[in-house]
Every structure is written in structure tokens, then in C-alpha cells.
Amino acid sequence: MSPAVDRPIRSALFVPAHREGWVEKALAAVPGAVILDLEDSVPAAERPAAREQVRAGIATAAAAGVTVTVRPNGWGSGEAEADLDACVVEGLDALLLPKVDGVGELEGFARMLRPLERARGLLHQRDGRERRREPGDRQGGREREVE
User: Fold this and answer.
1) 146: left (phi over 0), alpha (psi -120 to 50) or beta
2) What's the CA gap between 100 and 90, in Å, rounded?
3) Which of 85, 94, 133 is nearest to 112 (CA)?
4) Number of alpha helices (DSSP H) and beta strands (DSSP E) in the chain
5) Is it the case that residue 137 has pLDDT exceeding 80?
6) How far apart, in Å, are the Cα atoms of 138 and each of 6, 23, 119?
7) Comparing C-alpha atoms, which of 131, 136, 122, 146 is closest to residue 66?
């Protein structure tokens, strides 16, 4: 398990994903987690640029050993799919889902996640069962079964 997961997260800093250099500034504060925001802190006109930059932010924060979380736009926004496509990459530990109004929205996010994780090699096959790497485990050690 990586250091980012085996200790309590005592601070989590939100970073607007469209702001170049802000991930590095956040890391200078030595947070337990960085939350890259694609939602409210990013003006609608700048969301495409934020999606282009979020992968670099994930890589930078993951390399620093902090827990990496992304807050995508809400399910009904019409932007959730593009956000997930941009951020579901190696190094992402968690999603912070905004304004969830019910189980249907959670199921919708889950339906979008599995094909992205599979296509990007973030799921593994063992004993005929699909498994997902534990968050933060970038060395491929612990896995859990995917339902």
C-alpha cells in the first residue's frame, strides 16, 4: 500500500484543475490529499482546458505520494462523461462525486467507470474474476473483486 493510503488524511486541498502550477503550490503545503476540481471552481468556458490539464495534475500529485481525488461535474450536467474520460488514469485514487441525488446517479457513474478502467488497464483478471487495484496501490499489490 502506498504512503498516500496507509495514513490518515488530515488535510485535503481543492485545486481548480484549469490552473497551471497550482498543484505544485498545493503540494508545497504537504497535504494528505489533493482534490482536483473539474466542477464549481472551473468556469464553464475553461472546462475543456481543465480536462486537458487534469492528467498532468494527477501524475504530479501521485508522484508526490499524496492521495489524488478528482471532483467531476454532476451526473445531470452533460459533462460527467468527458470528465471521467479525462481523469480515469493511473494515479487517480478516488472520485468525489458532487450533488448526488440518488442511487441512479451512482449507478450511472459506475457504468461509465468500468469500461474506462478496463480499457486503460486499471482492472486485472485473476481466477476468471475481474479485480480492481486498491486506491493508491501503484505497485499492483492488493486487489479487490469487481462486482
Assistant:
1) beta
2) 25
3) 85
4) 4, 7
5) no
6) 13, 20, 17
7) 136
Strand partners, 67: 33
Residue 124: its pLDDT value, please? 60
> What's the CA gap between 87 and 116, in Å, rounded?
10
Nine-digit cell string for 9: 488524511
DSSP class per residue in 49-61: HHHHHHHHHHHHH
pTM score of the predicted model: 0.80
Question: Cα–Cα distance between 3 and 85 in angstroms, integer?
Answer: 26
| Three-state SS annotation for 120-133 | CCCEEEECCEEEEE
7 C-beta neighbours (distance < 10 Å), count: 11
Side chain identity at residue 141, one-letter code = G
- Segment 41-52, tens digit of pLDDT: 999 999 999 999
Distance of alpha carbon 106 from alpha carbon 99, whole angstroms: 11
Q: What DSSP character marks residue 5?
A: T
Structural domains present in the chain: 12-145 (3.20.20.60)
